[in-house]
């Protein structure tokens, strides 16, 4: 009994801390609930993984943005150079010949290439001036050619320098001032050219589809051109006044805030 009492006393002393350290058994280790540590670690890894995915996505977008910017810079440089080539060719032709007769025939291949590549003014180039050769020496053709050339050199050089974040003030000024005169003159040249083409279109029936035919459909290119000319009336003012608004905003810092309906 005494031995048992001594063991009990020793055990009690160990619990109270009176027994020397070697005689007392160490407390059992504390065990975390199963899966808790693993869950926390997994959460941290998931967070780290998500962050790296976001960084990869941002990096991919930056690379795509850089490629797109490089392509646009190259495109605008090429277009600027192309219109400069046209301007030099027109000036050289006039200085050598002393007349504009035959000018269109000389520069038509370069003109068709760059206008088609830009997907603009295709109608005037291919379906009017190219198709109706009798009007190629009209003064109105030279008028819109000169306007197009000055406008496109200014426009594409503006885009190029703007993408390079180094826009000279003169280029910006030219972009938002030349159009005040060039746009109305260019529109006049285009309208006069279409008007000059009307008699030849009516006489030859080019691009027209007469009845009877197997499709039972008719199309008169002559009246279509008249409709095209009439469409300039509502469309040109919209474009022109939009450019005037842009001019005020860019050159004078005026910003118009549109109110919600």
Write the layout of secondary structure elements.
Elements: H1 2-16, H2 36-97, H3 103-117, H4 122-130, H5 139-163, H6 169-175, H7 179-204, H8 221-252
Helix pairs in contact: 2-3, 2-5, 3-4, 5-6, 5-7, 7-8
General description of the model:
By secondary structure, this protein is mostly helical. The protein has helices at 2-16, 36-97, 103-117, 122-130, 139-163, 169-175, 179-204, 221-252. It contains eight helices and no strands. α2 runs antiparallel to α5, α5 crosses α7 (179-204) and α7 (179-204) runs antiparallel to α8. It is globular and about 70 Å long. 16% of the residues are buried. The chain crosses the membrane at residues 68-90, 111-129, 141-164, 176-201, 221-241. One of its GO terms (molecular function) is very-long-chain (3R)-3-hydroxyacyl-CoA dehydratase activity. Keywords: Endoplasmic reticulum, Fatty acid biosynthesis, Fatty acid metabolism, Lipid biosynthesis, Lipid metabolism, Lyase, Membrane, Transmembrane, Transmembrane helix.
Q: What features would you highlight for this structure?
A:
single chain; 261 residues; disordered N terminus; disordered C terminus
Task: Summarize the amount of helix as a percent range.
Answer: over 70%
Taking the sheet with the most strands, its summary is: none
Whole-angstrom Rg: 40 Å
Unreliable spans: 1-25, 39-48, 255-261
Question: Helix and strand string, N-terminal first?
Answer: HHHHHHHH
**Overall morphology:** globular
Mean pLDDT: 83
The percentage of residues in β strands lies in under 5%
Structural class: mainly alpha
Straight-line distance between termini? 99 Å
Q: Can you count the beta strands? A: 0
Number of helices: 8
Organism: Chelydra serpentina
Pathway: Lipid metabolism; fatty acid biosynthesis
InterPro entries: Tyr_Pase-like_PTPLA (IPR007482)
Keywords: Endoplasmic reticulum, Fatty acid biosynthesis, Fatty acid metabolism, Lipid biosynthesis, Lipid metabolism, Lyase, Membrane, Transmembrane, Transmembrane helix
């Amino acid at each position: 009994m005494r031995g048992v009492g001594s063991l009990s006393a020793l055990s009690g002393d160990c619990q109270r801390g009176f027994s020397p350290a070697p005689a007392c058994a160490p407390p059992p280790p504390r065990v975390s609930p199963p899966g808790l540590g693993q869950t926390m670690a997994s959460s941290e890894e998931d967070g780290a993984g998500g962050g790296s995915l976001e960084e990869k996505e941002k990096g991919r977008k930056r690379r795509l943005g850089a490629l797109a910017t490089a392509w646009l810079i190259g495109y605008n440089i090429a277009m600027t150079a192309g219109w400069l080539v046209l301007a030099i060719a027109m000036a050289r032709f006039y200085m050598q010949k002393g007349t504009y007769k035959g000018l269109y025939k000389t520069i038509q291949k370069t003109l068709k290439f760059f206008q088609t590549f830009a997907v603009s003014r295709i109608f005037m180039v291919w379906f009017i001036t190219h198709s109706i050769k009798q009007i190629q020496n009209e003064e109105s053709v030279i008028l819109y050619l000169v306007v197009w050339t000055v406008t496109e050199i200014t426009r594409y050089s503006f885009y190029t320098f703007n993408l390079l974040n180094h826009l000279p003030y003169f280029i910006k000024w030219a972009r938002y001032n030349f159009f005040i005169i060039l746009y109305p003159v260019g529109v006049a040249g285009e309208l006069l050219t279409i008007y000059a083409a009307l008699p030849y279109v009516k006489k030859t029936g080019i691009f027209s589809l007469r009845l009877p035919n197997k499709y039972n459909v008719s199309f008169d290119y002559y009246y279509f051109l008249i409709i095209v000319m009439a469409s300039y009336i509502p469309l040109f003012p919209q474009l022109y006044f939009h450019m005037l608004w842009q001019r005020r905003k860019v050159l004078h810092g005026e910003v118009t805030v549109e109110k919600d309906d």
